[in-house]
Amino acid sequence: MRTLALGLSRTRYEVRGYFRAGDTVFFTFLFPVVMLAIFSVAFSASGSFGQRPDGTEVGAAAFYLPGMIAAGVLLSGVQNLAVDIALERGDGTLKRLAGTPLPVGSYFVGKFGQVLVTSVLQVALLVLVARVAFGVPLPTDVGPWLTFAWVYLLGIATSALVGIALSRVPRSGKSATAVIVPITLVLQFVSGVYLPFTQLPDWLQSFASVFPLKWLAQGMRSVFLPEGFAAAEAGGSWDLPGVALWLAVWLVAGAVASVLTFRWIRKDS
Amino acid sequence: MTPQPVVRVHDLTKSYGAVTALEGLSFEVSAGETLGILGPNGAGKSTTVEILEGYRDRSGGDVEVLGVDPRHGGLDWKARLGIVLQTSGEQGTATVREQVTHFAGFYRDPRDVDEVLAAVGLEAKAGARIRSLSGGQRRRVDVALGVVGRPELLFLDEPTTGFDPEARRQFWQLIRSLSDEGTSIVLTTHYLDEAAQLSDRVAVVARGRIVAEGRPDELGDEEARTPRVTWTDRHGRHDVRTSEPGALVARLHAEGGEPRALEVIRPSLEDVYLGLVATADQEADGPRDATVAGDGHRASSAGVAS
Question: Helices A104-134 and A80-91 meet at what angle, rounded to 10?
């Protein structure tokens, strides 16, 4: 109870800190929104990306929205937490907390809470911009939204845990951004966020299929794109069981790595 | 019933690979006492304190802090400690009040946030983001976070580095008031005036050992604290150590009138301290071959003692 109550107090504190740090707000929170706007405008002249069953055209904004949501989930979890925790380890925040009676569990409730709150706001903003600014029609049935709910929740949980595990990789707080951002950036390019996945060479597709972002983006496309687009996927279908499986594998791997590697401080460093 | 010591350290050792940082420290801190740990940079002050705080593991010896081995100190134990670390470079996106209030929430019976802000002199900055503060002001936030949980034992690791003289005076006042309320304090510093002002007792650490321990005005051996009288006459400058400087000056005056450039110097803590550290350095920096002889000597003296 106490762990949870302190965790919620941490969440409030963390969310406030998140929105006060200008660089995270831009590179993590607004980045997918900016990219969606740029892609939608840049490719608006290149016509249709396909047709819906009712005969309307799928424009650039509709085509890129699922990928940008997936990218947002990756940034809000992996990039945000890996950089954030590495910075906190480097600048003494973790050491200070380690000397207080704050339970480690509360610290993580705070981090998960921060990720969830900022990510939900980010996705809501993406969908809002797509709908209002670019007139993207949204699913009207319950089915796609249920798919969206589990893909999103599984995705954000996986992303947060992988972020915690990756926070051990940078050797110092100063190098955190330089180490983490290239990883997430490359993943976005090879996972079908910016470039249609099937346009990539086969070996690159196989490589990207090992990582969770490809599956997350595929799951999101199944929600926001018409059924006919499934044929353009690598396996010729949305393969939602595969999405669930691969995200779950990374969820468990991230959780195990986090538990094994997280320490308040590096003793005797 | 005599109160249990809040800190008990016996034969504490710490080595990093082949490098020995601490070579068998023993000391105690009584309840309500302020112990100053003095020593040059790299002497082992911070290593010692971080072992007591639970941040580092020791290589050998026994340590008890508030009756608990710091290696196994849980959250309840941490709730009774206040720790002010040496450096802090946090992002500081929170305001002073937000930060202190947030940390107060970690403790069961915290101090009133406004009282703490007043005590560290940050009322006027309560609404300011921590990152906008000066170094000295940030240090006071560190102290506020260290004391907000109403600790029984407070660790202060070089707390006034970067303070201007006035801020240092205010800080001393704050620490004295905490001490008056019964807080036990372990203070490391390399400012001798600070140690003298705040400590009931001082331990001088050099080369990983305690080379002297005692009240600030009783530190060092008799000779090191013996006053010196210096004056000039037609033979040149004189410099005489005497435990009765008044008598010497009276005799000088009776014999030759007012002595020229007369000074009576009572060795300051600094003089005594520098002497102690220099002695420790000389012993440690002796020729490498002397190590064997030194060990032999220690072994023989142990033999005599047993």
Answer: 140
Nearest CA in chain A to B98: A13
Q: How far is A72 from chain B (nearest CA, A)?
A: 23
Interface of A with B in 74-113 (CB under 8 A): 87-88, 91-93, 95-96, 98-103
Residues 6+ apart with CB under 8 A from B276: B204, B206, B211, B212, B219, B220, B224
What pLDDT was estimated at residue A263?
85
Residues 6+ apart with CB under 8 A from A256: none
Q: What is the pTM of this model?
A: 0.85
Judge whether A269 is closer than 8 Å to chain B, CB to CB.
Answer: no
B7-218 maps to which CATH number? 3.40.50.300
- Please tell me if residue A247 touches chain B, with a CB cutoff of 8 Å: no
CA distance B209 to B22: 6
Contact B87 A92 (CB under 8 A): yes
- Rounded distance between C-alpha atoms, residue A110 and residue A9, angstroms: 7
pLDDT at A62: 92
Q: What is the pLDDT of residues A125-146, one digit of tens each?
A: 999 999 999 999 999 999 999 9
Using 50, 70 and 90 to split pLDDT, how confident is the model at B298? very low
What are the residue ranges spanned by the domains of chain B?
7-218, 224-305
- Residues of chain A with C-beta less than 8 angstroms from the C-beta of B109: none
Q: What ipTM did this prediction achieve?
A: 0.90
